[in-house]
């Protein structure tokens, strides 16, 4: 069977499909559990979560499924950002805040220097089966700590060199994120523009240069994409956008609606929301901020500065100022339950294996 | 068999593989004939050719193969470019000309307003089996003229909308060119940046929206890419970079060498050489011209202005100033004969069909 391979066996999942650990509230406990219950691997996007909320979410998931699931965390970054840069960015953001009746810019606090360690501790304590990482290579200590507990560690790469770095640092598997992918670019070794490699080109080249299993991501939305990725040499796929529009997803209803009616030409890679390049549907916020793209405070500072704008825009029904993360396959998005999305994919691949080939 | 489908039957080829009609001397008669003799479709890149040279090449190909082959031509563009723009561009190009001992900038003549019609006439007169187009939709008259002669007409699209336009205008098939592709972007309906869609996302969405066969292009370098593209719904693939490094290719030896030793992060989309965005390996010419990217004379004027620089750089062994077109899969490039490249692909796919699936 197409879905039986060493990765599926290792992770104890029926289908080699991983739901991307999207941060920002998309990955509700219901979504993660529904994906895992359907035979794929659900994943909590805990990037921005404090340890308490993370633990709460993990426990909710455990109440909804007995199947394996994962948690995604971010490698911490502490950029040097000056007061002046922050003030300049706040000037550019003021018109949005005024329109939304947000009285003050959020305070940029020093990030909790131990957040990452605390997140890892929760994952260990809760014995989460899988931990995936974005934005870099996790510190050796964390990798050892997790592997000692038999927790599978998965890294993210956008180039072959980054995939090799993941293998060299002990990661068990690596996601190869093609340029089609929605949301944040995982690039951590060099400029993001050089690392905008299409999935069709990235996956086979990555597969040829590492021995750990490669998980394909970027533009994969249905059974065709899943089987194509396996043919390219991937041992599994990671799908984000396909699950954003699912019934169980916590994405704002306007975000879901916008994806469902968008076409592939409408997404763009922007740093306007977070200070880090990410693919989303072009809107007024992105267009207005485009001219300042190169001068914005680095991630995560810009992310903090736009936080209330994004949340208020969602509350006040203003999708033109929301971060509408989306990959390059929106025409293939569907409003279905996560379980249906997965069973549709499995049926589609079964069908291709039986008839077409 | 994986390679038997309506497109292969229609074109009377054994393998649904088309060698891209790359302009600029890559597609020697030897290459085109070798590809066709190996069971795929060779294609002469006649974009920049005058009718006499084109006819000569077609006749050479006919002497080397009895199998079907194609000719690729460009939809003509006549931009308004001012003397001032040309002078400015020549100022930026002067340092390269001085280094290469090129005494004067090439003269920018009015293009032959009837070149395209004359090219079509040659294709008709020589009864070339396939005619493909880049940079737009061919005029109705040309489509009718070719179809009347039972010459298959193939268009190029970089978005779903462009694919639909090709179908609506009577093209028999359409190449869906993903963002991974080397050489010129075929975008003609809107900005090229919006049309940088990865092959994994572009192909299934295009397939869902047109009834004519879709030919996948971009990042496809071996049997894995070919089979993946067919799984995505394409009826054939078009491969360019894979054939640039072939023994029979007319590409400059330094161009071939540079592809063979490059990695996926090294390509970039630039308008510096021709005034039209194209993907090639980053070098000093691209880097130096980057700051003027938005102010260059439009294609084909900039192409004319850099012509002697490119040809002299090739002669004088200066790859840093040559146009080193290359897709995002250079790690998969091989120095093999075209026939071996095709038989390797066929064997690889046969193997995947037998064992892996």
Mean pLDDT of chain A: 96
Terminal Cα span of chain A: 14 Å
According to CATH, the homologous superfamily of the largest domain in chain A is Aldolase class I
Oligomeric state of the chains in view: homodimer
Strand segment count of chain A: 11
Q: Biggest interface between protein chains, with counts per chain? A: A-B, 48 and 48 residues
Series of H and E elements of chain A: HEHEHEHHEHEHEEHEHEHHEEHHH
Gyration radius from CA atoms of chain A, angstroms: 19 Å
What is the count of distinct domains of chain A?
2
The assigned structural class of chain A equals: alpha/beta
Pfam families (chains A, B): NMO (PF03060)
Keywords (chains A, B): Detoxification, Flavoprotein, FMN, Monooxygenase, Oxidoreductase
Organism (chains A, B): Scopulibacillus daqui
GO molecular function (chains A, B): nitronate monooxygenase activity
What does this structure look like?
Chains A, B: It holds the Pfam family NMO. Chains A, B: InterPro entries: Aldolase_TIM, NMO. Chains A, B: Belongs to the nitronate monooxygenase family. NMO class I subfamily. Chains A, B: Keywords: Detoxification, Flavoprotein, FMN, Monooxygenase, Oxidoreductase. 2 copies of one chain form a homodimer. With 357 residues, chain A is of the alpha/beta class. The first copy, chain A, has 2 domains: 1-78 and 113-248 and 337-357, TIM Barrel, CATH 3.20.20; 79-110 and 252-332, no CATH class. The first copy, chain A, has helices at residues 6-11, 29-37, 51-64, 83-99, 115-125, 140-148, 160-168, 199-209, 223-231, 241-244, 253-260, 284-289, 301-315, 338-356; strands at residues 17-19, 42-45, 69-74, 130-134, 152-157, 173-177, 183-184, 214-217, 236-239, 267-270, 278-281. In chain A, the strands form 2 sheets. In chain A, strands 1-9-8-6-5-4-3-2 form an 8-stranded parallel sheet. The first copy, chain A, has a 3-stranded antiparallel sheet with strand order 7-11-10, with no helix packed on it. The interface between A and B is large, with 48 and 48 residues.
């Amino acid at each position: 069977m197409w879905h039986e391979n060493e990765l599926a066996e290792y992770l104890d999942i029926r289908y080699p499909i991983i739901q991307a650990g999207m941060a920002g509230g998309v990955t509700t406990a219901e979504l993660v559990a529904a994906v895992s219950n359907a035979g794929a691997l659900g994943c909590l996007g805990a990037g921005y979560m404090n340890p308490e909320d993370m633990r709460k979410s993990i426990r909710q998931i455990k109440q909804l499924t007995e199947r394996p699931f994962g948690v995604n965390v971010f490698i911490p970054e502490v950029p040097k950002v000056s007061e002046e840069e922050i003030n300049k960015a706040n000037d550019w953001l003021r018109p949005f805040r005024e329109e939304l009746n947000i009285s003050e810019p959020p305070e940029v606090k020093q990030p909790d220097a131990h957040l990452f360690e605390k997140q890892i501790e929760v994952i260990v304590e809760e014995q989460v089966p899988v931990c995936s990482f974005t934005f870099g290579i996790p510190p050796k200590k964390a990798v050892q700590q997790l592997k000692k507990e038999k927790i599978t560690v998965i890294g993210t790469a956008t180039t072959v060199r980054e995939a090799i770095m993941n293998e060299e640092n002990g990661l068990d598997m690596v996601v190869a994120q093609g340029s089609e992918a929605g949301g944040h670019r995982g690039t951590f070794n060099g400029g993001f523009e050089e690392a905008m490699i299409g999935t069709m080109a990235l996956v086979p080249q990555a597969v040829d240069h590492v021995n750990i299993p490669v998980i394909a991501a970027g533009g994969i939305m249905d059974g065709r994409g899943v089987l194509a990725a396996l043919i390219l040499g991937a041992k599994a796929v990671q799908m984000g956008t396909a699950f954003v529009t699912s019934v169980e997803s916590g994405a704002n209803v306007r975000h879901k609606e916008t994806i469902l009616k968008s076409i592939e030409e409408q997404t763009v890679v922007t740093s306007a929301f977070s200070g880090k390049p990410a693919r989303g549907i072009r809107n007024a916020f992105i267009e207005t901020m485009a001219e300042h793209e190169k001068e914005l405070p680095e991630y995560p500072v810009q992310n903090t500065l736009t936080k209330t704008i994004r949340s208020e825009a969602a509350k006040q029904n203003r999708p033109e100022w929301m971060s509408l993360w989306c990959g390059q396959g929106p025409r293939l998005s569907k409003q279905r339950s996560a379980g249906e999305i997965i069973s549709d994919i499995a049926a589609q691949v079964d069908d291709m294996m039986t008839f077409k080939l």
